[in-house]
Amino acid sequence: MIEGRLVIVRGAGDLATGVILRLVRAGFRVAALETGKPSAIRRTVSFSEALYDGSATVEGIRALRLAELPERWSPGDPVAVLEDPGCALLARVRPAALVDAIIAKRNLGTRLDMAPVVVALGPGFTAGVDAHAVVETNRGHDLGRVLLSGSAQPNTGVPGLIAGHGAERVIHAPRAGRVEPRCAIGDTVAAGDPVLAIGGEPVPAPIGGVVRGLIRPGFQAERGLKVADVDPRCVREHCFTASDKARAIGGGVLEALLMLGTP
Q1: Which of 56, 66, 71, 245 is the Cys-Cys partner for 50 at CB 3.0 to 4.6 Å?
Q2: Tell me, what's the pLDDT at 159?
Q3: Is the pTM of this model over 0.70?
Q4: Residue 112 half-sphere exposure, CB side, CA atoms within 13 Å?
């Protein structure tokens, strides 16, 4: 018997972590399922880091890497993070709800029959077909909106604008290789300053700002992988709390769970 109103969240990157923060504060028990080698860049606000370090704390809420979900639970207990990309845990527990927060822009195997309430984030899902509700993830007027029919806006392939900057605020690996950081999350850089090196090749900041995301040192990146981002607003504190986007999406998920009568 698993105690608590359990919500399984697929993914534990920064947007998934924003969802988890909302759910935990609303009284839900949450377990996050991740791949063995997450590639989050906003590592200071991603519970996926627990898979590397054993634990991670975001906004005062702690997550622990566990091999199995404990039966006993009390409010305030750490969030469980399990290496389980295929949702094998569902063969042993029956959650009240499941949230697909992988943000893969496509469905990686989430189905309506996985839980009494299934919520999915962003493009790749159709409400009523592979999830009971879909939450809009595209920046703009509808960010965080709950859809009970139809799909979220299509993937544009272009990051949303922040302070007038879109694609140029995100750094992708120019080649495959091992990541070697040249600065840290929270550092301020000017355009052209080295942010990291990949396979020995320096990668400069495309714009000036604060380094908000930087993939884990030593990560073996594939060419084209998102490896860092620079926030032109230059507010260092933003690097260490959930983003406005993550909080809006988390609010949408909470609304969907309550609207759909999560037991």
Answers
A1: 56
A2: 75
A3: yes
A4: 9
DSSP conformation letters of 36-103: SS---S-GGG-GGGHHHHSEEEETTEEEEE-SS--S---TTPPEEEEE-TT-GGGGT---SEEEE---
**248 token code pair:** 């809006």
Best CA proximity match to 96, nearest among 74, 113, 115, 72: 115
Asked whether residue 4 carries a pLDDT value surpassing 90, the answer given is: no
- Strand, coil or helix: what is 241? coil
Give how far the C-alpha of residue 94 lies from the chain's centroid of Cα atoms, to the nearest Å: 23
* Residue 222 DSSP label: P
Tokens 């544009």 belong to 156
Q: Given this model, what pLDDT does residue 2 score?
A: 63
DSSP notation for 168-203: GGEEE-SSSEEEEESS-TT-EE-TT-EEEEETTEEE
Q: What distance in Å separates the CA atoms of residue 253 and residue 141, rounded to the nearest whole number?
A: 17
